[in-house]
Amino acid sequence: MISKPVTAQIQHETLYPADKLDLVQVENVVVQFDGFKALDIHYFGVDRNELRVVIGPNGAGKTTLCDVISGKTRVTSGRVVFDDVDITYRRDTDIAGLGVGRKFQTPTVFESLTVYENMELALPRRWKVWQNLFGTETKEQREHIHHLLERVHLIDVRNLPAKSLSHGQRQWLEISMLMVSKPKLLLVDEPAAGLTDKETALTAELLNELKGSHTIMVIEHDMEFVRQLGSRVTVLCEGKVLADGPLEKVQADAKVIEAYLGRGKERK
Amino acid sequence: MTEPTASPVTPVVDSRTPDSGLASLATAHRLATKSSLWVALGVFALVIPLSYGAGVIDITTLNQFGRYLCIALVALGLDLIWGYTGILSLCQMMFFTLGGYCMGMHLAMKGPLQGDGIPQALYVVSSQVSGMTLPWFWQPFDSTWFSLAAVVLIPGLFAYLYGWLAFRSRVRGVYFSIITQATTLAATQVFRLNDLQLCGTNGLTNFKTLFGFPLEEASTKVGLYLLSVLALTLGFLACRWLVNSRAGRVLVAIRDSESRLRFAGYQPVAYKTFAFAVAAVLGAVGGMLYTPQNGIITPFKMNPEESIYIVAMVALGGRGTLTGAILGSLIFSFSYSWLSTKFADWWLIILGSLFVFVILVMPDGLVGAWRRLGLWLTARSQPPTPEPTVKEATP
Q1: Which of A76, A158, B161, B233 would give a disulfide with A116, using CB separation of 3.0 to 4.6 Å?
Q2: pLDDT digits over B262-296, tens only?
Q3: B388 at interface of A, judged by CB pairs closer than 8 A
Q4: Is residue B118 helix, strand or coil?
Q5: Do B316 and B355 contact (CB within 8 A), yes or no?
Q6: 3-class DSSP state for residue B107?
Q7: Contact check, Cβ <8 Å, B246/A92
Q8: Do B57 and B48 touch, CB atoms closer than 8 A?
Q9: Within 13 A of B117's CA, how many CA atoms are on the CB side?
Q10: Which of A96, A104, A166 sits opposite B391 (nearest CB)?
Q11: Is there a contact between A129 and B262 if contact means CB atoms under 8 Å apart?
């Protein structure tokens, strides 16, 4: 690595106060896979009702960060706090129960269930066997599902099995499932991957609607999409937080430019 | 499922041209599908008992049908855990046999007793001739209510505990199939032991009365047959209610993507354990009704191949459909008994080849093929319509 500009160094020291109000706090977290440090974060936090975008080149540890928060991957050392609860060693289901909702990088929906049934399963806080044996969703919930499906243009295919959906429709279905489950934190891993420009715009619109009233962490490659979100951006590179701030500022950061250029630009 | 013969089919000029012959076939298909359950219920609850009454079939045949219905209950259970939840269990007949043993012990207690109130079946295999007392675990089976409760609770709780331990340790896929198969094999070996005082390889037999009715009487046999019809009907309705509930959708979601479900906040272990226990209870009820109709229950009903037959039945009928499980098991049982009497040397090969043929041609079983036929008929008999909008919905 070329020697870092002094300004960036100072920035790094002052940017991350241990703000205890953050909904998610990732503190001194190291994740190692067979000696390879996938994640090495001094501090990363997402404030309540903030929309945070995490970008970075391939292999920067973006998805690993998501995995650590949602309990899919265990940390080697460090601490993860969600909503004032230490979730470092909690099980994935418990973390979901605490209010961390997640959309996966490759859209994962329940293939043999219909679009509507997928949404139904995503309804919040109905996880016990007996709760699901008896009782159905309320009128309000049904209307909410219909409203969301209309927004993402899935209302006409609501009774088709999810396996017949296109890639873009799956993305939207999974985002809608996340929205209907009303989590305290929405982890959205690459919501625009494989979408056309028009579809990307709608996805950005959906997330922008939630902005301000929901805590959202979006992982994305697509710079145009990130621009449409217009939010604070954290850049990860080789498992470390490289820069943080508004997109324009981050894009002008010499370290960020180097990280992207040094490994080949991913997307203009 | 009576399919009326088609009105003369006019030659198809264009595959896209609507065809009145096909249209009537499609209607017939729809009607047959809709009425199939009522027809099946009518046949088993009315036609078969009435034809026995009229002397068309004898009591042995009626009794045989009754036993097939009991086996169908096991298939129904396997369909829940395998067809819907995607977990291949190879020990369903173990639960059937456990249920059968609970019933068998009760029947033996009510049968001829020897010595100091020892059921004959137990007495004849015992090495202790003099001074033998009734083992403690036999005593409560004298009570009808205890026995009936045991039929449900022993296999049900065993399956619940077993499933919980296995699923909690994230034993899944082929590993679960293997350990269930090993379990049923081990259970056979254990039940064969004379020292267990469950009559060893002889099994439980020498039954005389059931709830005071002599088992020899034809009227008791008809009653047991009708009870089997009732049990299968109720089992089917309960399963249908279960798979149509949201819990049933969770089961399908487990089959599709279990890890995704965990991140949605569900505990797949609870659902899998529940489905496994329900499947076990269905099997046990089948065993309970089977034992008095069969007159004997032996440890060999727990042999691994017995449970594999159940898998074959569900695969034949169409897994993931409740009607498929029942249809498959009835067809399998009929052809099994017919082939094994007609072609004593060849029946296994014939049955196996038929099975392979059906699976190759109809991967989703008979019910799946039937459904596809319906879709095809409907598509062909309707004027060409634009493809359903499964395509990209552009904003």
Answers
A1: A158
A2: 888 889 999 999 999 999 999 999 999 999 999 89
A3: yes
A4: strand
A5: yes
A6: helix
A7: no
A8: yes
A9: 10
A10: A166
A11: no
What residues of chain A lie within 8 A of the CB of B243, using their CB?
Answer: none
Do A153 and B393 make contact, defined as CB atoms within 8 angstroms?
Answer: yes
Q: Is the pLDDT of residue A18 over 60?
A: no
User: Contact A169/B393, CB-based, under 8 Å?
Assistant: yes
| Among B252, B263, B394, beta carbon nearest to A110 | B252
Rounded CA separation B168/B272 (Å): 10
Query: Which of B249, B256, B265 lies at the smallest CB-CB distance from A111?
Result: B256
Decide if A126 touches B, using CB distance below 8 A.
yes
Cα of B202 vs its chain's centroid, Å: 25
User: Based on the number of CB atoms within 10 Å of its own CB, is B152 exposed (0-12), middle (13-18) or buried (19 or more)?
Assistant: middle
Inform me whether the C-beta atom of residue A104 falls under 8 Å from chain B C-beta atoms.
yes
Residue A153's closest chain B neighbor by CA? B393
Question: In Å, how far from its chain's centre is CA A202?
Answer: 17
User: In 10 A of CB B103, how many CB atoms?
Assistant: 27
Distance CA B317, CA B358 (A): 10
Please enumerate in sequence order all residues whose Cβ is within 8 A of that of B383, keeping only pairs 6 or more positions apart, or say none: B18
Say if A106 is an interface residue toward chain B (CB within 8 Å). Answer: no
| Interface membership of A110 toward B (CB under 8 Å) | yes
Q: Are B209 and B51 in contact (CB under 8 A)?
A: no
Q: How confident is the model at residue B302 (pLDDT cuts 50, 70, 90)?
A: very high
**Chain B residues with CB inside 8 Å of A113's CB?**
249, 252-253, 256
**Mean predicted confidence (pLDDT) in B87-94:** 94
Q: How many Å apart are CA B48 and CA B200, to the nearest integer? A: 36
- Asked if the model's pLDDT at residue A20 lies above 60, the reply is no
A154 inside 8 A of chain B by CB = yes
Tell me: pLDDT of A89 over 60: yes
Give how far A129 is from chain B: nearest CA, Å. Answer: 6
What is the ipTM metric for this complex?
Answer: 0.81
- Cα A196 to Cα A49, A171, A225: the distances in Å are 28, 12, 11
Reference B326, options B79, B152, B43, B96; nearest CA is B79
Inter-chain residue contact B395 with A156, CB threshold 8 Å: no
HEC assignment per residue over chain A: CCCCCHHHHHHHHHHCCCCCCCCEEEEEEEEEECCEEEEEEEEEEECCCCEEEEECCCCCCHHHHHHHHHCCCCCCEEEEEECCEECCCCCHHHHHHHCEEEECCCCCCCCCCEHHHHHHHHCCCCCCHHHHHCCCCCHHHHHHHHHHHHHCCCHHHCCCEHHHCCHHHHHHHHHHHHHHCCCCEEEEECCCCCCCHHHHHHHHHHHHHHECCEEEEEECCCHHHHHHHCCEEEEEECCEEEEEEEHHHHHHCHHHHHHHHHCCCCCC
Q: Which residue has the higher pLDDT, A137 or B242?
A: B242
A41 against B161, higher pLDDT = B161
Q: What is the pTM of this model?
A: 0.85
CB contact under 8 A, A154 and B392: no
